[in-house]
């Protein structure tokens, strides 16, 4: 019974079954950058998800794909990569680790051709790149959000509030 349970979770090569599914491009016209595991190259790769449909071989970041489909494999120097905006013109608020500063900084991601030093939240970025506990990260991220508010005030006229 135990062998049957293990077989349902992973292939004979140790790759979880959900990671063997084809990338779910989706059938709607949205443009969401996502990641999937490619079993032929044994790597996580970027693709554009259309927003409808999908399967369990779809991840919000390369790191999450690697965590799920390559457990125990060292992830490399992700946090030393420079933030890459990319050539696309979307306006996604992202976070990248800045080794010189010792913390994460926000940047605007265009939606395609970035790299793995690209996180949706400050907390996710700090956890991955510093290894600190949430209680140590939370005050740092709160302080960094002040910079983010200042950025929004300069770039988004709707961010101003009037009394």
Automatic annotation (TrEMBL):
PANTHER family: KUNITZ-TYPE PROTEASE INHIBITOR-RELATED. The keyword Acyltransferase does not apply. It comes from Amblyomma aureolatum. Residues 19-69, 79-129 form the BPTI/Kunitz inhibitor domain. This is BPTI/Kunitz inhibitor domain-containing protein. It is found in: Secreted. SMART domains: KU. Transmembrane segments: none annotated. It comes from the Eukaryota. It holds the Pfam family Kunitz_BPTI. The keyword Cytoplasm does not apply. Keywords: Disulfide bond, Protease inhibitor, Repeat, Secreted, Serine protease inhibitor. GO terms for molecular function: serine-type endopeptidase inhibitor activity. GO terms for cellular component: extracellular region.
């Amino acid at each position: 019974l135990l062998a049957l349970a293990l077989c349902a979770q992973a292939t004979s090569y140790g790759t979880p079954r959900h990671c063997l599914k084809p990338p779910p491009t989706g059938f709607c016209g949205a443009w969401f950058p996502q990641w999937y595991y490619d079993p032929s190259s044994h790597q996580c790769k970027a693709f554009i998800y259309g927003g409808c449909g999908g399967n369990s071989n779809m991840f919000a970041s390369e790191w999450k794909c690697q965590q799920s489909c390559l457990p125990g494999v060292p992830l490399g120097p992700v946090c030393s990569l420079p933030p890459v905006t990319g050539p696309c013109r979307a306006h996604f608020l992202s976070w990248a680790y800045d080794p010189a500063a010792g913390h994460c900084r926000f940047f605007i991601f265009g939606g395609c051709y970035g790299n793995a030093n690209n996180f949706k939240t400050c907390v996710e970025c700090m956890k991955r790149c510093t290894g600190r506990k949430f209680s140590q990260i939370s005050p740092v991220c709160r302080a960094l959000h002040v910079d983010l508010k200042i950025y929004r005030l300069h770039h988004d006229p709707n961010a101003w509030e009037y009394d």
